[in-house]
Amino acid sequence: MANENLNLTLKVWRQNGPNNPGRMETYQVKDISPDSSFLEMMDVLNNNLIETGKDPVAFDHDCREGICGSCSMFINGEAHGPDRGVTTCQLHMRKFKSGDTIHIEPWRAKAFPVIKDLVVDRSSFDRIIQAGGFISVNTSGNTVDANAIPINKEDADKAFDAATCIGCGACVASCKNASAMLFVSAKVSQLALLPQGRVEAEDRVLNMVHQMDEEGFGNCTNTGACEVECPKGISLENIARMNREYASALVKKG
Amino acid sequence: MALESKTPKGPLKDKWTNHKNDINLVNPANKRHIDVIVIGTGLAGGSAAASLAEMGYKVKAFCFQDSPRRAHSIAAQGGINAAKNYQNDGDSVHRLFYDTIKGGDYRSRESNVHRLAEVSASIIDQCVAQGVPFAREYGGMLDNRSFGGVLVSRTFYAKGQTGQQLLLGAYSAMSRQIGQGHIKMYNRHEMLDLVLVDGKARGIIARNLITGEIERHSAHAVVIASGGYGNVFFLSTNAMGSNVTAAWKAHRKGAYMANPCFTQIHPTCIPRSGDHQSKLTLMSESLRNDGRIWVPKNLDDVKAIREGTKKATALSEEERDYYLERRYPSFGNLVPRDVASRAAKERCDAGYGVNKTGEAVYLDFSAAIQRYGKEKAVVMHIENPSESEVIRLGEGVIESKYGNLFQMYEKITDHNPYKMPMMIYPAVHYTMGGLWVDYNLMTTIPGCYAAGEANFSDHGANRLGASALMQGLADGYFVLPYTIGDSLAKEIMTGHIDENGPEFIKAEAEVKDRLARLCNINGTKTVDHFHKELGKLMWDHVGMARNSEGLNKAISEIKALREKFWKEVKVPGTPDSFNQELEKAGRVADLLELGELMAKDALTREESCGGHFREEHQTPEGEALRDDENFTFVSAWEWTGDASEAKLNKEELTFEAVELKQRSYK
Predict the structure, then answer these.
(1) Domain ranges of chain B
(2) Are residues A237 and A153 part of one domain?
(3) Of B337, B347, B605, B626, which residue is the catalytic one?
(4) Which residues of A touch B276 (CB under 8 A)?
(5) What is the CATH number of domain B500-652?
(6) Which residues in chain B touch residue A145, judged by CB atoms under 8 angstroms apart?
(7) Interface test with B, best of A48, A67, A94 (most B CBs within 10 A)
(8) What is the pLDDT at residue B147?
(9) Mean pLDDT to the nearest integer, B55-75
């Protein structure tokens, strides 16, 4: 385990608003513990900036335990940085060496406009879910007993794996086409794999894909970068499943 | 003001059913003309917003995150309790009720807890209908596991991500209503004041966090579901943005704050590694199903381990002190959280902590890996499996149960928990205290409701594991949508509430003034500086063990710190722009008021109960000593205009169905 503290050069994207031009700014941070997380390193930078009368770097973050999906930094050309299977908040500084230069940028996609610095607007994801990412069941104390419909364990596990998507947008940021297929297919798959989700499966996939196109996400060309960079390991298999679901729905519903 | 719990008459088990039959209803055509504001989109707020919109009310929902899906309920790991008795182990509504009352150390309201147990089963049905992928057995049925403080398996789970899956269920239900136009969603908005008109909650002042614009929103009722205030300790398992602001604004407008000192310190968190740390990470209580907690028996071994000359795995069984199993043989590693936390502190204070800071104990899976490995070998018909084969199989089983937690642990600490025992230490996790509510979940302000962690209602002085998710969803899906009708039925003739009324204009001016003040102090210290100072005071004096000297010290020092904050804090930027430091500053300013009240509440409560441990009140064995004669009440604090002068009101608690006993898990 590396014990020595790190001195780093940061090149950070600064942009005042969606319509302002952005630029890379260079900062130095010193004496960073290798046990600190990447965002704790950013806290140090921001405290330095505030104390010297400068504007701190805006970035999204909340749970800092890899599950809320808020944090969204493009670090040295990779969504969530060089480690695999982690979000930015779970990336630790022991993955870097003293003297390194680290480039930090926001997600870049037409459908994710920059709000400020590293903060982007991902509400397009919400609108895709609103178009069909649900099962139409109202709250009632009278739904059937939870064990009334046994679900094959393999399907339940696959549905769970798809459902672990945190909606961070790393897939979009990593894709050369800024495609949202991995995100959309994860939700389509989760619900298509469960009997209670089958009832609306056709409308769901058609509506969600339609909304995805409306939002300005690109197409999928099967490069697979999304799967590699996904912090939750969402599988490309979901995209294949969504394509099947979509094709059959299209044939049936036109 | 006299506190009226409005608990319905009749036998405990019939109260909720009878009450539902008596509640005023609003006709479907009228619901369209009634607006409800919901603050927060976690399990309580999200489920309430979705259910109210499905019923036909016009809902406006607010969250400070960029999407309602990111509320901190998402991070809940272990599971959700429900009295389904699928395991045929003798569970029932009564047993869940009893466990919760006892677990809360007899400081919660019987009627509310019974209702919680009654609706618990419906929550699971509802979530499965929504497509929540709970863990299942090979036969396709739902799986359960056990949590602390109970003797049955009633916890439903989705690996170590149960909160995420439940929240995404509520989020999808909300999304459906947003898509249909029944909920108007305000992402990246923060409530900065509650507006009262003629004594009733009639709306809020909110800040658009992107533009900095101050907005007025009116409604016929306001639901506060903004979560807990554990961030008053700076280091906690809460999200960075978790805050007390919405609840505190309501408190300052007349909502009483109940039992603010009841804080849950969770026994199994990753220990702190240094001063850079911004938050602590929980390792789910579910791990105590399979992990055994221990420290070395001999101080020489402790020393060698700290110096790195000896490894935990080198210690024989005889050299280990499984202190929970030793002290509490019947519950063992699955004692409730407050008991487990104090026991860890006791060992570490005695010098047995196993890391450099002396604040860590082991959570060891080697016995479980062996046990599962052997079971699996039998299932797979492997005769005489080798040691390494058993370990490989056992690790596979552990991975399928807790994979994401083990991965999280390894990423943070750089240690492999399959090979070396985890190191854990207690950390602030949850706050049982919150806004005082009556049986209908209404605060002391008419029309202002509180749900989920933001209210005080169900967990008494200590919450049982997997009960937060249950309470959040119970409140939002099955309680509030009914009980809110009682007051809304009187609003059908009210008509739209005017956002341009004088009360709104005044509240807006006050909010703007406060934001401008924060930006104009232009001191020398960052918001984080003050937040860390506050956190240290709270942890040292209002943490796991409290005494009157420390609490008095906390009260005066927090007050001084608050004054300093308003003179010396530096908030860069302006109020009319995207300004994350300003957001933080407003929240820390409120926490600086709350912290003092927590200390005051802890000082007033001259007994030990649940998570509240007063060193002056303990048994010779070091267990918490309750004083039922003098403290069987809810402390409900009233704002008087000065943060140091809150006034105590009491709701006496009466118990009909259970007998008050000294808790024993031995």
Answers:
(1) 269-428, 500-652
(2) yes
(3) B337
(4) 32-33, 35-36, 40, 43-44
(5) 1.20.58.100
(6) 125
(7) A67
(8) 85
(9) 98
Q: Is residue A137 part of a domain?
A: yes
Out of B119, B126, B239, name the one closest to residue A63 (CB).
Answer: B239
Task: Give the pairing type, strands B80-81 and B155-156.
Answer: antiparallel
Average pLDDT over residues B395-402: 92
Of B65, B119, B142, which is closest to A147 when you measure between CB atoms? B142
d(CA B130, CA B111): 29
Amino acid at B169: G
Q: Rounded to an integer, what distance in angstroms lies between the CA atom of residue A123 and that of residue B67?
A: 7
Contacts of A32 in chain B (CB under 8 A): 276
Query: Who contacts A129 (Cβ-Cβ below 8 Å, separation ≥6)?
Result: A187, A208, B69, B171, B172, B175
> Is B337 known to be catalytic?
yes
> Same structural domain for residues A18 and A92?
yes
Question: For A62-75, what is each residue's pLDDT tens digit?
Answer: 999 999 999 999 99
A176 and A56 fall within a common domain: no
Residue A3 has pLDDT above 80, yes or no: no
Q: Which residues of B touch A20 (CB under 8 A)?
A: none
Report the share of chain A in percent with pLDDT over 90. 95
Give the pLDDT score at B1.
64
Domain that holds residue A31: 6-105
CB contact under 8 A, B407 and A70: no
Whether pLDDT at A1 is above 80? no
CATH of residue A79's domain is 3.10.20.30
- Alpha carbon distances (Å) from B638 to B9, B215, B435: 27, 28, 11
Question: How far apart are the C-alpha atoms of B355 and B273, rounded to whole Å?
Answer: 10
Chain A nearest CA to B473, separation (Å)? 11
Angstrom CA distances, A183 to A45, A110, A170, A215, A234, stand at: 32, 16, 9, 13, 9
Domain termination residue (choose one: A58, A78, A105): A105
* A-B Cβ pairs (cutoff 8 Å, strict): 222
- Render pLDDT for A91-149 as a digit per residue (tens, 0 to 9): 999 999 999 999 999 999 999 999 999 999 999 999 999 999 999 999 988 889 999 99
Same domain, A131 and A97: no
Whether residues A80 and A131 share a domain: the answer is no
pLDDT at A253: 87
Into how many domains does chain A fold?
2
Residue B535's pLDDT is what?
Answer: 97
Measured between beta carbons, which residues in chain A are less than 8 angstroms from residue B185? Answer: 126
Read off the pLDDT of residues A225-243 as tens digits, 9 standing for 90 and up: 999 999 999 999 999 999 9
Strands B189-197, B361-364: pairing kind: unpaired
* Residues of B (463-522) whose Cβ lies below 8 Å from A: 477-478, 481
Interface residue B213 vs chain A (CB under 8 A): no
- Closest partner residue to B140 (CB to CB) among A116, A136, A151 is A151
Q: Please state at what angle helix B387-413 crosses helix B366-379, rounded to 10 degrees.
A: 130
pLDDT digits (tens, 9 = 90+) for B202-248: 999 999 999 999 999 999 999 999 999 999 999 999 999 999 999 99
Query: How many angstroms separate the Cα of B18 from the Cα of each of A136, B9, B15, B22, B26?
Result: 30, 9, 5, 6, 18
Q: Does B12 contact chain A (CB < 8 Å)?
A: no
In the predicted model, what is the mean pLDDT of chain B?
96
Q: Which of B67, B179, B407 is nearest residue A122 as measured by Cβ atoms?
A: B67
Tokens of B213: 């614009």
